[in-house]
Specification:
By secondary structure, the protein is mainly beta. Strands 5, 25, 26, 28, 29, 31, 34, 36, 37, 40 and 42 form an 11-stranded antiparallel beta sheet that branches. Strands 1-2-7-19-10-15-14 form a 7-stranded antiparallel beta sheet, with no helix packed on it.
């Protein structure tokens, strides 16, 4: 097989990237730098992993968000071209409308085999003869001269005519493909109107067909037309152009967004179609961006002495987000844990010991200065009651005298330790050292103890020092008495991962707080 002329692919400004050759006894097909377009089209799929509760997509534009399309050429070598000889001429009927770019003419002679073979422009010139190429669409049409080798030179005010074809080394090349019937003649005389065909002999003809893509369309999704080039793609392009770049960012974003809105998989596809024998260089970089889960409304969590789960309706995705941002507004509600006298509740599942509280009071002793000058609002008892009970909680002097009224709480039956808050009657600040005494009016209470019965104490404090706010033990902000308002706060991503159903991050602080998150946005990069 003869080597394919590598310049052919450049005639339409198409870069030469690769050559795929399929060989047969009668023909050879070469794809110059592209890939064939099948009847169903070439598809480039965009598929992003889903996110639970996703609300929108964003494209970051890093990949340019364009599809690049360039025409490639399918070159088909036909070793034997069917030719009819009549009326001193050779005719290629070309009923299949094949796009001939070159014809190789072997044993082309004038009159008979005894004359020398004509193989080039110089042979024709030296023999004072022209090779004339004419075409027509059907047998009923007139033949139209297109090319002459040598060309018809300028005559007076008439410019050169029938130029553009070349003839060298038996190869007759055309500046563009001929898709109609082709007639080859040997003629004499200098002007078109005086041409006189002479008898000719042509031994064998082979051909080179150049297929360029036609009727190319680019669609997105089911049927959204993004771009089309009717007719010949290559011939419709500006001179020197190597292809087109089709902007797809807006359409791509809208299609991916529609998938989220309709609760479908986050995917779409670009499909490029074309006419028969089309081949293109079709490239498309996978877009980069993110799937967002957005919560524009206020998400409020009230912290009252214990860790509180983040208030949100739906579970988080098992995938960890790449970033979490929200506007944070925190209001201090006037109460805080007195940390120096408050105990930590035991970890759920660990063994516990303690004291059983019945009608006989059980006392938790406090340091002499422990509650001096504090206004106690709540006392949290750590324990449980198997059958339910009613408890009284009172302050006592260090010698056991009752001080003020008791706080009272009724507990339901439980099987695990918890913090049970008792509202203490309003009073002014304590002006003496006190202990805390607990007794059961009914039932009994198991009061967890570690060296002493465990409890937590809440005091009224209108102007505390700033205290830390945590989310899952990660510091996120320091809260003063006047509260805080922080827009665009970055939050720890690990706290917003739904590793188990119902998993929520927990907020905690020694202050009693109302915590509002707005414009919460979880970003999952793609």
């Amino acid at each position: 097989m003869a080597l394919i002329d590598q310049t052919l692919a450049l005639e339409y400004g198409v870069p030469q990237t690769e050559t795929l050759i399929v060989e047969d006894l009668e023909w050879t097909v070469t794809y110059q730098g592209g890939e064939p377009v099948p009847p169903e089209g070439l598809t480039r799929t965009v598929q992003w992993a889903p996110v639970r509760g996703a609300t929108s997509v964003v494209l970051d534009g890093q990949t340019g968000e364009t599809a690049s399309i360039a025409p490639a050429i399918i070159i088909e070598d036909i070793n034997t071209v069917s030719v009819d000889h009549f009326d001193k001429r050779a005719v290629i009927k070309n009923l299949e409308k094949k796009p001939y770019k070159q014809l190789t003419l072997r044993n082309l002679r004038r009159d008979n085999p005894d004359n020398p073979e004509l193989t080039s422009f110089n042979d024709l010139r030296d023999a004072s003869i022209r090779l004339l190429v004419a075409t027509r669409e059907t047998n009923q049409d007139e033949w139209v001269p297109l090319f002459s080798v040598p060309r018809v030179e300028k005559k007076g005010e008439i410019p050169p005519m029938l130029e553009g074809a070349t003839f060298s080394n038996r190869i007759l090349s055309f500046p563009y493909t001929l898709n109609s019937q082709i007639r080859i003649s040997l003629v004499t005389q200098e002007t078109l109107e005086d041409f006189d065909a002479v008898n000719m002999f042509l031994g064998q003809v082979s051909g080179k067909l150049n297929y360029v893509p036609t009727d190319v369309q680019l669609t997105l999704g089911e049927s959204q037309l993004l771009w089309e080039m009717p007719g010949s793609f290559a011939l419709s392009m500006p001179a020197g152009s190597v292809g087109v770049r089709v902007p797809i960012e807006l359409a791509l974003k809208n299609d991916l967004q529609a998938a989220i809105d309709e609760n479908r998989d986050i995917e779409t596809a670009l499909t490029l179609t074309g006419g028969a024998n089309s081949s293109v260089i079709f490239s498309f970089a996978q877009p980069s961006g993110a799937v967002l889960r957005e919560h524009p409304d206020v998400l409020r969590t009230v912290i009252e002495g214990e860790d509180e789960p983040f208030e949100i309706e739906d579970d988080f995705d098992v995938e960890m987000p790449d970033s979490v941002v929200a506007d944070l507004y925190v209001r201090y509600d006037g109460l805080r844990i007195l940390e120096e006298l408050s105990d930590m509740a035991p970890i759920v599942g660990t063994s516990t010991s303690g004291q059983v509280v019945r009608t006989t009071p059980v006392t938790r002793e406090l340091p002499a200065e422990g509650l001096m000058n504090h206004d106690v609002a709540k006392i949290g008892l750590i324990g449980w009651s198997h059958e339910g009970c009613e408890l009284d909680v009172q302050f006592t002097s260090r010698d056991g005298q009752l001080i003020g009224e008791a706080g009272r709480v009724t507990l339901i039956a439980e099987a695990t330790p918890a913090i049970h808050w008792v509202d203490m009657p309003p009073r002014n600040r304590l002006d003496q050292a006190v202990h805390i005494q607990v007794s059961a009016r009914s039932g009994q209470f198991f009061w967890v103890s570690q060296d002493h019965p465990l409890l937590r104490i809440v005091i009224r404090d209108p102007n505390p020092d700033p205290h830390d706010l945590f989310i899952d033990d990660t510091f996120i902000a320091q809260v003063p008495a006047e509260g805080i308002d922080i827009p665009g706060l970055s939050l720890p991503v690990h706290a917003f991962t739904g590793s188990t159903p119902g998993a929520r991050p927990h907020l905690s602080s020694s202050l009693f707080l109302t915590v509002d998150f707005t414009a919460l946005t979880l970003r999952y990069n793609r």
